[in-house]
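haha ok so turns out i had the wrong file open the whole time. this is the CORRECT one, sorry everyone. sequence first:
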Amino acid sequence: MKTIKVLLGNRIREIRKMKGLTQEQLAELVNIEQKHVSRIELGKSAPTFERLELFSQILNVPIADFFHYDHFEDQKTRAKSFDEMMKELSEENQKLAYRIFSGIIQALKENQSQ
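then structure:
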C-alpha cells in the first residue's frame, strides 16, 4: 500500500496536470523551487499545511480534493470501495448508478479501441 505522502503527491500532480500547469509554473506561483514541487509529487516530501492551502488557492480546488485518492489504490481496493458506495444507495438509485456506470464503461472501451 502506498503511503499518504505518495498518494497526496500523486493527487497534487494529477490536479496540477488537469489545470494545465507544469511543475515549473506551479513552483513559481507558490514561490518555491521546481525540485521541491517534484519531491512533493513523488512523495519524498510533504507540503506544510500553509503550502497545501496555497496549492489549493492556486489550483482553485478545495483542500479536501487533495485527499481523494482512492482511484490510486489497487484494483481490489477500488472494487471494494465501489461496492461499499453502491450498498449505501437505495435499490432504485443502485439501478440508476449501474446504468450510468455501464454507459461510461462502454464509452471508455470504445475510446480505447480507437
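The helical segments are 4-18, 23-30, 34-41, 49-59, 75-87, 91-113.
again sry for the mixup
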